[in-house]
Amino acid sequence: LKGSKSANFCPKREHCRVSSRRRASLNFLGAMTSHERWPNGATFLACLVALVAAAPHTPENAPWNINFETRHEPEKYFGEWTNHTYFPSPKDWRSLAIYQLITDRFADGDPRNNELFEGGFDVRDMTYRHGGDFAGLTSKLPYIKGLGCQAVWISPIFQNGFNFYHQYAQLDFTVIDRRLGTLEELRALTTAAHDLGMYVIVDIVMNHMANELYFEGHLEDTAPWRFHENRGEREYLLKSRKEERFLFDTPYGKQPYLDFWFNNTWVASAKYNGTLYGQYGESVTDDVGSGTYDYSDFHHNGDLVDYFDPWQINYGKIYGVLDDLRLEHARVQEKYIAMTKALIESTDIDGFRVDTPMQVPLNFYKSWAPAMRAHAKLLGKDRFGIFGEFYVTPARYATMTGRGRDQNMYGQDVFIDDIATLKGGIVYPYYWYIFTSLVHQQPQYADGLALAYREENKMIDTYDPTTQRKEYAMWNFCNNHDNWRLQSMTGKAEMRMCLAVVTFWPGVPLHYAGDEQDLDTPGSALDGWSREELSASMAWRAVRTQQDGNPADRDNFDMTAPSYRYISRLNGLRQMYFGEFGSEDCDAVITPSPQLADVLVFERGCNASSRVVVVANFDQMNNKTVTVTLPWSSGTLVGDALAEKDPLQVTVGAGGSVALTLQPLAALVLVPMPVHVLPPAVVSVAPAHGSVPNWPTEDGALVAISVKFDRPMHPTVLNALTFDGQVLSGQTRSFRCINPTSCDEVTLQVEAASVGNGFHTIGVAATAQALDGSQLRATFRSSFMVDRDSGVIAKPSSASISGLICQNETKLCHNANGASWLRVQNVGEAWSEWHPYENTTDWVSRPGSPVLVQYHAEGSASFIVGDCKSQAGEKPCYASWHESMHLRGEWNAWGEDDTGSMTKISPFTWATNLSLTRFTKSKLAPFEDWSKSYGIHPARELLYNLPSFDPRHVNFNPEPYMSGSEASRKWMVQRDLWTEHESMASGAEFATEIWLSHLCTAEAPSCIPDEGAQWECHGFRAGEDQDWCRSVGVDGCVEYKENDQSVEMSTCGGCSCCKKKVSTVPVGTNRTCCILFNDLLLNYTVTPDLSKCADSHMPPPGTTTTTTAALRTCAPKQTTLEEARAGTSIQLPVELDTEDQELTLQETLDWSQKRLADGEALFTDSGYDRMVSPSSWHEEVSYSVFVDRFANGDLTNDEKNLPDFQRDELKSKQPWSVHRWRHGGDLQGVKGRLTYLRDLGVTTVALSPVFLNSGGEYHGTCTSDMTTIDPGFGSGELLRELVH
Hints:
Layout lengths: L19 H10 L13 H10 L45 E4 L32 H6 L1 H6 L4 E4 L28 H13 L3 E6 L8 E3 L13 E2 L2 E2 L3 E3 L7 E3 L2 E3 L20 E2 L5 E2 L25 H6 L14 H18 L3 E4 L7 H17 L6 E6 L3 H5 L25 E4 L1 H10 L9 H12 L3 E2 L4 E2 L4 E3 L8 H4 L2 H13 L3 E5 L49 H17 L20 E6 L7 E6 L6 E6 L7 E4 L8 E3 L5 E6 L4 E6 L9 E5 L15 E8 L11 E3 L2 E2 L8 E2 L7 E7 L6 E7 L15 E7 L18 E2 L4 E3 L7 E6 L8 E2 L3 E3 L8 E7 L2 E8 L18 E4 L13 E4 L2 E10 L1 E6 L14 E2 L20 E2 L1 H10 L7 E3 L9 E3 L19 E2 L8 H7 L1 E2 L2 E5 L14 E5 L5 E12 L4 E5 L33 H6 L18 H22 L15 E4 L18 H9 L14 H5 L2 H7 L3 E4 L3 E2 L12 E5 L6 H8 L1
Parallel strand pairs: 1-2, 1-18, 2-3, 3-12, 12-13, 13-14, 17-18, 55-56
Antiparallel strand pairs: 4-7, 5-6, 8-9, 10-11, 15-16, 19-20, 20-25, 21-24, 22-23, 22-25, 26-27, 27-31, 28-29, 28-32, 30-31, 32-33, 34-35, 35-38, 36-37, 36-39, 39-40, 41-44, 42-43, 43-53, 44-48, 45-46, 47-54, 49-52, 50-51, 51-52, 53-54, 57-58
């Protein structure tokens, strides 16, 4: 497989010949990264699948199988949990706050399962698996409970293929993905959650499986829609992507899936059963045709392209890469019902979050949902939760909420039928209004929340037959796993206001993992950018969103973080004021009429005594003074319950009115004073969470470990405090209250020397009680690290460790205090197994070959170091992830001309020079084949619009927000966190090519060319007519042209004005760029500063990747003149021909002699006389001049050939490198000071190098062309005048 071109990359003209639509679709799914690895030859994959595939319960798959049926009859599969008492459902799902996480991106409890199935584990890459599992999540449940979330929604759990860290491309529906853990570990998770009073919701997929099948004739391209038989053209035959020898034996013969089977038997009389619904809530029942592959468990209709065609959206292959199940068929329904019943019974989960329900025929839910509720009820779960992903129009999700309504039933007590389907789901209208108000800075759209709630409730059915009352149970959010993080698009203040709104707005508040720690990586979650994990992660290290780096680079289970405590307070207030809900009144919302401009005001409560009023100013720039009517009587003192200290307090006036002045983005939660008592919280610890204190080392030195609470605590709190898991109360050294009367802060004095290297924990049991009688919400835990050796766990950025290879290359000497596991690799070979940490490891390394060690500590395997020992007498050897690296692109026929090899110039850093005249596509490839390559995430517009019930949607056309690497790069550059030369690469199979250009930046062209663009019809907008069409040409990224009725423009039809996307890229003058790639952090740099690519061991001229003779430059470090001269060699200023022929010695001599003769002739013509050499140089008085640092004689050349870093620092007004700037000295300045030098007694002036210096360095020693004077210093003529 790794040798096949389809495995990752198709070079030259067929480069990545997965259609651009398919690549975008993969991007939409969020790193669906293995679809191209599945075609022919996947021996390793097939063997592993055979070991753990679902089918009957066997001894081999028992550790992961939720099915206990031993016969291969999927419709009879069942689950069991012997002698287990099942946890009851919540009394009212509305009372909960839900915490959403991707299991792989949370905490890695056991690294030994990270590669148990098919691979894809790579902590360097944000689109690969990082090792999170059930064990890690279980250990962090108190952290989630402490946030005030009573339920946790985890990503899908069943077996996926290569990578698929998000788990949405399942190979079956009964075997747990080995990389997440075993059935017993999942049971341990649900048991631990239930012991804490929490609920577990599992994300399930039923619409589709993986990508094991393709439509005949369309292995890699789009299969156009087919339905029944039309003019002799039937629906497609399905084909397996694997060879027959890799398929499973099933009751239906050889199949790529064990429990769901395709069948290419045409049934001419067959029809599709059930009523379908489209995006507008319209019903479709007129299946006038006939004929389909009725015996197949999969649809044969082709790819889903038109999302507004009800047939396609229900039966099409989503994104063109996920095999679509025939869920409307009773046979398929029986199988899936049996499997999901087994999931409930074998694991005691509490609810489902249903993925992509809008692509599933409604008749499936009418059968499946009642079966789930009935089975759960038999186990004691009376209100099993079923919630959907409603990333779709309200009209569409209205058909599948409760009993369902179509577009003809709104506002009436009429339903599709009496069968309840999904209770609620994740809805987007409220998010879109918040997004528009804050991201697009149009605060007037804040009034849309009330409009959406009013109109939505006319459409959806909220009646719950299990409670026999109406319950609005939609999930509202500020962020989730499919979008940019709001705080990265706006800021922390906007995020906090959003959180306050969604917490108290009707429905269930949903919190996305990492928001409580202010994770702020820019970019779409679908690409992996904002799917950071909570444990330390190196994948985002180069995306330094703050001055001290990216928060995701450290452990983020900090229960004292300000945003953690803010969300905890929000959830606590919601719970205290709304309680367990239990009433339809809880969903009533009162808003002003008319609403206030730019300010959202709403009142809610489950009864008259527990009401709150939320006031939120969506204006990001201006204060707002508003008068609000409150539900409390005149004279009532009300205050902002959200403020921890000194809350705003006002007295209610006549008629319940109060006047409020709101600062920009202010959010108030008004309640009668005093505020209900919330659980106490730890506000700080010392040492701080995740810190590495610099403690004294001398004997007897004492250090303090302290915990501070938000209120006075009962003295018994000392019995709840632990250090390293030990209660110290009553011992010689134990915690004590600093102020015995309040005990709001406690401290422990210990001898620093007695605290060993490694991680240490500070804990407070949930039983800790405040003086007001309240108790902690959850057990508190904080960790810090002591490391007197400054090892890799304490300083993870130190990736290159000299001395790691030790004792004559026979051992590895580790410096990783705090690590619990490690594994080792000689680069180019397989990793060892994980084994417990040890100080030294027996390991034979190879001279000249790097060794890597990966450590696991505190729930993360993101600690990687390397070392390399050179062979005697050879150049230094640097650590790296790969043995080699190649830059390939259009300019070298994608590597077919055997150029493009990069040179390792420092640890993990590869470099090459490249001369370009235009934008061109490239990829980085570590191997001779294309089994692995690095590119960038493709650009895609994010789906976004206002609901159609808002009349403003007709003219609503904001600039679309983009996903992809380029969008994230621009975000970083705009905030001066990256220069224009920096970006990130990814090894994901959906990654597209990196753009390189003569501009020597990492920027993509402003208009991405579409080589396959065709003319299409253009409808005139305001101010446009046919004359405009004839004259406009290219506008933005679109070319317009009058229809000339040519064959080329036939795709435009009968339209008079046509348009198509641009198909060419910008060009410019030839420029040589330095390209750097770090294969550990996966960031790359494209810069004109060739010194950054230089190293004393760079290849000689002729081997550097360039279209002209190679340039030699200085080392990237600051050097002495002697060092710089020693590393400088002069190229022949001759352009080689297209064959890159080498010059012979005679040709070189001939060229030199001609140059000398030309120079003599030029001098003779100048009229100058030669000055003879001095009789003895010993008698001369020499004066050494740095030309740039002597005198500025000509201001007009001051900005010529400035180095890029100087331009960047001038632009950003941050002159960090002013000592390396050019200061303006030139040859004219030296010439004007000759008399001064003569009067000083100087007889010889020694000038610093003045020849062309492509890096722009002020000292001139990085000479790149000795035939040209650096324009910043002057000209050849000026030098001649100076000399004479």
